[in-house]
Design goal:
The chain has five helices and five strands, in the order ββαβαβαβαα. It is α/β, with parallel strands linked by helices. The longest helix has 18 residues.
Length: about 150
């Protein structure tokens, strides 16, 4: 079984610079599509092909408010469920270092809620405010498992 890092990107978010070299699967939201549903479908494909998600990342756009927070929380919980049960499993919430104070407050609150749900788990929840990668991440086409490349073709 191979390990993977799953990056779910909200529309308008930026690729985080500190993603490692393990297999990376990226899901970008095009705005109207349901990123949570696409993430669940991708997780099913990964499990079928015996890939285990050890690190999951939600790259957050600048949107704030109840609707954005609800979508983001649902996505984060889906990914947290996917990594729980692994060794050194991690969920990372990532946003631009230029994030507004409101977005920062909302993400800190979400990270706190998710951390409180980890009782009995070795998983961690991290919150990153960082500069975008500026092209340092490997291209998605080179890093997706073959089954996902076939499924998206």
């Amino acid at each position: 079984m191979t390990t993977a890092t799953l990056v779910a990107m909200e529309s308008g978010s930026e690729w985080p610079a500190q993603i490692g070299d393990s297999t990376v699967v990226g899901l970008a939201s095009s705005g109207d599509d349901d990123l949570v549903q696409r993430t669940r479908a991708t997780l099913d494909l990964l499990r079928r092909d015996r890939h285990h998600v050890r690190v999951a990342v939600v790259t957050c756009n600048a949107e704030t408010g109840a609707a954005a927070g609800s979508r983001r929380a649902s996505l984060a919980r889906t990914l947290l469920d996917a990594v729980t049960g692994s060794i050194r499993e991690r969920l990372i919430l990532s946003a631009s270092d230029r994030a507004s104070d409101q977005l920062r407050r909302e993400l800190f609150a979400l990270a706190g809620e998710l951390t409180a749900e980890l009782r009995g788990s070795t998983a961690t929840v991290s919150l990153w405010f960082m500069e975008p990668s500026r092209g340092h991440a490997r291209p998605l086409v080179d890093t997706r498992p073959r089954s996902l490349m076939r499924a998206s073709a």
